[in-house]
Specification:
EC 3.5.1.-, globular, transmembrane helix, ACER, mainly alpha, 11 helices, two-stranded antiparallel ribbon
């Protein structure tokens, strides 16, 4: 990558928000600061999942850290509109998705070729991610649309799990998560495709709403698949979906609580 890709405005992607209207140093101010949830949310999730990480799957904390990297990369991209920023933003999203899928996808959904081996599944996902990373550098203009397609298998897996889940609270959270995802995608499409119409209404900020909604949807999906993982592989841990600050308030911050404090054996 040459130095010109570090320059401001070197990305072929420019969102609807006007550039440098609020700050002379930040290209898209609202799109930049709307990533704040990616920075303040994951440290709290690390705290809520401390028992889960200690006794079930330590890699859950890697997912939260990757979400921080997504927020930092997205903020850098929207502040500079550089090609490097765009690639960092998109590639971190790809790796969050693939890491979550590799680590927490229930084994019964593995293709037969992997023979229910999570190690084989993780290796194949890593190879796919590396290939996709190389392609994204070659065709950066289509990266965002390609990443949108990842919502299809994720939604399908969530649908299959919700069909068999017994806990109604988990089911309701899955429905809310899907609804938020749909609204987020609608915001993204409108900002990208119908910018002129929203600019005439003096509201070119739908991409900022996308950032807020997609963080809520992304971390909620991670919580759900963390629940499915322990239900599938450690049912004796009696996982429970809980909410902070009040377990009776289902619009709070969801997390997974476990009740059997014995570390998960390595049997991938």
């Amino acid at each position: 990558m040459t130095w010109e890709h570090l320059e401001r405005g070197s990305s072929p992607v420019d969102w609807c928000e006007g550039n440098y209207l609020i700050s002379p140093d930040i290209a898209e101010f609202v799109n930049t600061v709307s990533n704040i949830l990616f920075l303040v949310g994951p440290p709290f999730l690390i705290y809520l999942f401390k028992d889960y990480g200690k006794f079930i799957q330590p890699a859950i904390h890697m997912i939260w850290i990757l979400l921080i990297v997504v927020g930092l990369s997205s903020a850098y991209f929207h502040a500079t509109l550089s090609l490097l920023g765009q690639l960092l933003d998109e590639l971190t999203i790809l790796w969050v998705f693939m890491a979550t899928l590799s680590l927490f996808c229930p084994r019964r959904h593995f293709p037969r070729i992997f023979k229910y081996s999570r190690k084989r599944f993780c290796i194949s996902m890593s190879v796919f991610s590396l290939t996709a990373t190389a392609l994204s550098v070659c065709y950066p203009a289509v990266n965002a649309f390609a990443l949108m397609l990842l919502a299809i298998p994720a939604t399908y897996l969530l649908y299959k799990e919700l069909q068999i889940v017994a806990d109604k609270r988990v089911y309701r959270l899955g429905v809310r998560n899907t609804t938020i995802l749909v609204v987020a995608i609608v915001c993204w499409i409108n900002d990208r495709m119908f910018c002129d119409a929203w600019s005439r209404m003096n509201f070119p900020y739908l991409h900022g709403f996308w950032h807020i909604l997609i963080f809520i949807s992304a971390y909620t999906a991670c919580v759900l698949f963390a629940y499915f993982f322990v239900s599938d592989e450690r049912p004796e841990s009696r996982p429970q979906l809980k909410y902070w600050p009040s377990n009776n308030f289902e619009l709070g911050v969801p997390y997974v609580s476990v009740n059997c404090y014995k570390k998960l054996d390595d049997h991938i």
